[in-house]
Amino acid sequence: MILKALFFIVAVVGSTILIARLTFTIPEIEGRIDTTVLPKATSGPLAESLIELEAAHEGLTGIAPLQSGADAFAARILLADAAVSSIDAQYYIWHADLTGTLLLDALVRAADRGVRVRLLLDDNGTTGIDTEIAALVAHPNIEVRLYNPFNLRTAKILSYGFDFFRLNRRMHNKSFTVDGRATIVGGRNVGDEYFGTGSTPLFVDFDVMAVGDIVPQIAAGFDRYWAALSVYPADLIVGIHKVNDPIGTRLAGFKGDSQMSEYKAILDSSNIVAALAAGELDLEWTTTVLVSDDPIKGQGAVPREDLLASRLKNAVGDIKTRFDGVSAYFVPGSGGVEAFATLAARGVDVRMLTNSMEATDVLPVHAGYAKRRKAMLESGVGLFELRSKAAPDARSNRLGPFGSTGASLHSKTFAIDGERIFVGSFNFDPRSTRLNTEMGLLINSEQMAQKVHKAFDEGIKGLAWRVEQRDGKLVWIDSNTGSVSTSEPGSNILRSIALTVVGWLPVEWLL
């Protein structure tokens, strides 16, 4: 009787999934015309300043860190306003909040001037902006495409129920390239929490603006994703319908908002792009390597040697003395623990900064990290966990190379041997390794690498707990006061139970 009931349940669930897959299908992309990157602009403020600079630094990349959220926001807006020929933007999340709307408006302004705009978004991060996407698509100078789009536009999450294995693969890349001359790459998505102001929890994050040798490589990488099999023209997904000006209407809703005044002040006070155009921006000219996943990763299995993690390992080469990493979502798994232990056994000083339980925005990910915490400490890895703190001053640089103090860590970077630094979208977790597509820059920069090492040497300036194991038990040490806590910061009964249960489940590969 029980077997019959189970068989019936399986049959009903299987039939429901099959019917849903047949009913809510994704359209075919046969006949899709794939545009390609335009030649570098030869006029306009960026070209006029950079042509001579690039010629004087042939084969090198000019790097300017975008440490604070304010600088990162201003750089994107002001680059868009300086564009004369093209903007190619690729993001995992684009929120329907103030900064998301301001950046959409900047893209429209550029398109109105005749700039060709291509916007590639992961559909997991487009909630609430279908109408805005439709308006962009209607503009003759704007193309929008969606990566692994959801079958349902309302209650999108239900699509996972019948198309899980496709939708579980996401495009986590972030880049913003203007006129083929300047680009922004790093960990920030588009939304208020990534740009350091507003009432949302602030994310500690890190980007760089780059010019010179690396820009054509990033542009070519954008083209590979633009033409990928997992990418669909947005009009096939959100439909073509008459819209007035949803972006302008949404923006008008922020009129009089104090946050609008704050962002206007940021733009008025920023001289990043003006300094770049005038040839006065303090750029570090160096060699840089682009490390990126093949977009075919969105279709399924990819040979291990072709994964970004493998390519990054080969690009990094031997690590001799120091490895300091920052990963918002740190789930090392057994393989990561072994790799870090091997480094530590060779005498490499290995230290990692991630979110504490009180700071994390994804508790299951913290569970994946917590189950490996003791093993890492026993192997000699130093662990720091960012404290959840109020951030009244969004432009504070207390955390040095990791940006302004915030409530939750989102940065993905690491420094090696005081010589090189990686900045990008890659987290140390199974999702970044096997499921999502990722990208980043490996930069030869003693200046940037030493800043990261110094921040760790100084205990992350007291903004993180140092985790140790004493008498077989974990303790969290406040480097400001030296006080020691035997209770995990942010824990309570429900969270502790959830942490334990998730740790038992075979879901580490999903985290």
Automatic annotation (TrEMBL):
GO terms for molecular function: phosphatidyltransferase activity. It comes from the Bacteria. Pfam families: PLDc_2. Residues 167-194, 405-432 form the PLD phosphodiesterase domain. One of its GO terms (biological process) is cardiolipin biosynthetic process. InterPro entries: PLD-like_dom (IPR025202), PLipase_D/transphosphatidylase (IPR001736). This is Phospholipase D family protein.
